[in-house]
Specification:
The chain is mainly alpha-helical and about 425 residues long. The protein contains 20 helices and no strands. It has one domain. The two termini are about 40 Å apart.
């Protein structure tokens, strides 16, 4: 076991892809045990880990998000957000956050949300005098909300990994997404007021303007209603909902907005397939890693230790949060879930922590990781869009990190934020 962890640590330290690192760690374990005859089971274990109907939702949601990104969907959602919060001081900062929440309801991916919305708002924020580093910070803090608001690829990953209801997890993300979005917008409003960023727009808020914005965005806003309504209405499963979202996304961009041509689809499909394949490769490699953990009974040993030392639920949640905050700084969210949850889940089950609340908390935690270096995919996307210096953008992002950590603490101390809606619709 120690050999496997050493190999895993060394390969990750030299930037070997996480999936390859996990696979090499599993092979090193078998070699160190002198059980090379078992090497033949590595490939079947990887396939078995990927061969899941629930996990089929991941490539579907990836494709749906890519299709939406290519369309005019982001512009319509930014215009809708502008109607509600565009007239306050620093309004474009709040518009960015609210638009990311809207786009998250059709995307399921944090980096895709940051890219789609950031490319629309960045020119306007530059025109209004926002420093590019601050603009990048706002985009990097708001984009990850797309992974928290349903549908969410990370929620699907958590549900499949821990055998938790994906439908309940998706619904639980609503309350947490609103909480994180509200904290982010309040901080933006305070910062912009203090530093004099942005322009206060004097246009009147009219019913005609509201209706026009809703009409433009209505087709996109129907997406989460179809997905969540179908799941909770018992019409289709989360995986089937992902397939429906692909069909509806194609209808939007090909027929309604006409922003994608048929000749663009092969390249779009290839890009989505590449992204989804990377995620599924990690899933397969983690299956080998999980098999080793189970064989050595590591999760069971940790669960017994937690019970014997009388750890409280709050103490355990703090430990889990610290582990995921660190993991989120070095790997993508789905990989962190696949790697750590097989270790923590037996302890969580023994201490009777609600898995829906835990899943929402973990995904919220990993959203923070998307803007914290060295990985910080959301921050890198934002800097590329705004042409901001990375060092300056990191300084501007730090306050947002602290604000969202406070929001995470509120979520931990008040679980009904995540569990109330699932309990209301599904019962306890």
């Amino acid at each position: 076991m120690i050999v496997m962890l050493v190999v895993l640590a060394i390969t990750m330290a030299i930037n070997v892809p996480i999936a390859v690192s996990l696979g090499l760690g599993g092979i090193a374990y078998l070699v160190a045990k002198g059980q090379t005859d078992l090497l033949s089971i590595v490939a079947p274990r990887m396939f078995a880990g990927m061969n899941s109907f629930e996990l089929l939702a991941i490539p579907m949601f990836v494709l749906s998000g890519d299709i939406m990104y290519q369309g005019r969907v982001s512009k319509a959602l930014v215009d809708l957000a502008r109607v509600f919060v565009g007239r306050i001081k620093g309004g474009m900062s709040a518009v960015t956050t609210l638009a990311c929440m809207f786009f998250g309801a059709v995307s399921g991916s944090g980096p895709a949300t940051a890219s789609a919305i950031g490319s629309v708002v960045a020119p306007d924020m530059k025109e209004e005098g926002y420093p590019p580093e601050y603009t990048a910070a706002v985009i990097s803090a708001s984009g990850p909300l797309g992974a928290l608001i349903p549908p969410s690829i990370m929620m699907v990953t958590f549900g499949a990994t821990t055998n938790t209801s994906v439908g309940k997890l998706l619904l639980g993300g609503v309350g947490a997404g609103v909480l994180f979005g509200a904290f982010t917008m309040i901080h933006s409003w305070w910062t912009c007021g203090k530093r004099g960023f942005g322009v206060v727009r004097r246009e009147k808020l009219t019913l005609r303007g509201i209706l026009r914005a809703f009409r433009e965005a209505a087709w996109a806003l129907v997406t989460p209603l179809i997905i969540l309504g179908g799941i909770y209405g018992g019409i289709f499963t989360p995986t089937e909902a992902a397939a429906v979202s692909v069909a509806y996304s194609l209808f939007l961009v090909l027929v309604v907005y006409r922003s994608v041509k048929l000749r663009d689809l092969p390249a779009l499909l290839a890009r989505s397939a590449e992204t989804a394949a990377g995620v599924m490769f990690v899933v397969g490699a983690v299956a080998v890693f999980g098999w080793v953990l189970t064989r050595e009974q590591i999760p069971q040993m940790l669960a017994r230790a937690a019970i014997e030392h009388n750890l409280s639920q709050l103490t355990l949640l703090v430990i889990i949060n610290i582990a995921f905050l660190i993991a989120g700084m070095f790997m993508n969210g789905s990989a962190a879930i696949l790697l750590l949850m097989p270790v923590f889940m037996p302890i969580v089950s023994a201490m009777k922590i609600d898995p829906v609340f835990l899943g929402v908390m973990v995904v919220a935690n990993l959203c923070i990781g998307m803007m914290t270096p060295p990985v910080a995919l959301s921050l890198y996307v934002a800097c590329r869009i705004t042409k901001a210096q990375m060092s300056g953008a990191i300084r501007e992002t730090i306050p947002f990190v602290f604000v969202q950590v406070v929001a995470l603490a509120v979520l931990v101390l008040c679980p009904p934020i995540a569990t109330y809606l699932p309990a209301l619709l599904f019962g306890k």
